[in-house]
Amino acid sequence: MEIIFFGTSAGLPTKDRHTQSIALKLEPYATDIWLFDVGEATQHQILHHSIKLGKVSHIFITHMHGDHVYGLPGVLTSRSFQGGEGKPLTIVGPKGIKAYVEASLSFTHVHLNYPIHIIEIDDQLDLTIDQFEVQARPLNHGVPCYGYRVQAPSTPGTLDVAKLKAIGMEPGPLYQQVKNHDTFEFEGVAYDAHHFKAPEKQGPIVAIFGDTKPCDSELTLAQNADVMVHEATYIDGDKQLANDYHHSHIDDVLQLITHANVQHSLLTHLSNRYTKEDVKAVEQQLKASHTQSFQFVQDFDAYHF
Ligand SMILES: [Zn+2]
Ligand SMILES: [Zn+2]
């Protein structure tokens, strides 16, 4: 899979960074794209990339602050003209997302040429979408705000060809049966398929957070994640002050990475007061003194996993 950042700034855009916008490419598990938050310049940024809005099947909103949703009406409208015609779109977000979408489309006289389905989260949500397990859990940001945990589907284990040949089964269409089922029959004998393949491979886990100060559900969302996307609004200065504003300090995030055993973290939503040079310098310093695997991201950064 791949995560692409179209906006990485906090609150306001800067000359180098737009407000929050993240795409999750589901390949090789599915061909759809999911968006997480749709900051103001999302549709402009996507024009610089091979992603097409028509491929976006789901949009997940963490919370209703402008730096996370001001791009939504434009994305919805343009999707009609960029391959989205007739293709359903699901939007998941906090209470208020439905009224916001309906009002912005209605006041601007937009008639979408595809159906939209809006799900408002009430406290928390568990969804299965095409074998992907999605969990939304509440964060602590002063307004209703959610983090999402996405678990990709498991894939069948590799076949043990030598063992299959030993029972007389040569490579062919039957191998698919062994691969995809618990049992199979060959020349009148029933077999347990698990004896002929490696265990199922669990799909990767991605945790994508909205703005938050440290809270209990962070651990639930991030536990053993392969990749975590987290805000690090404050990368220096006073931790207490960051938390008073319902945001995370870099020390909070580094602690979470360790407690939740996260493999790699992509840190975004850095305060717009930091320049590129500030960020580079802090990153180098932190990497010299910490063992956690992480990086600060900029617009158009992409991460494969
Ligand atoms: Zn924000
Ligand atoms: Zn916010």
TrEMBL record:
It comes from the Bacteria. Its EC number is 3.1.26.11. Signal peptide: none annotated. Keywords: Endonuclease, Hydrolase, Metal-binding, Nuclease, tRNA processing, Zinc. InterPro entries: RibonucZ/Hydroxyglut_hydro, RNase_Z/BN. The active site is at D67. It is an enzyme of class 3 (hydrolase). CDD domains: RNaseZ_ZiPD-like_MBL-fold. Binds 2 Zn(2+) ions. One of its GO terms (molecular function) is zinc ion binding. Zn(2+) 2 binds at D67, H68, D211, H269. Zn(2+) 1 binds at H63, H65, H141, D211. It catalyses: Endonucleolytic cleavage of RNA, removing extra 3' nucleotides from tRNA precursor, generating 3' termini of tRNAs. A 3'-hydroxy group is left at the tRNA terminus and a 5'-phosphoryl group is left at the trailer molecule. Its cofactor is Zn(2+). Pfam families: Anti-Pycsar_Apyc1. The keyword Nuclease applies. Belongs to the RNase Z family. Zinc phosphodiesterase, which displays some tRNA 3'-processing endonuclease activity. Probably involved in tRNA maturation, by removing a 3'-trailer from precursor tRNA. Homodimer. This is Ribonuclease Z. It comes from Staphylococcus microti. The gene is rnz.
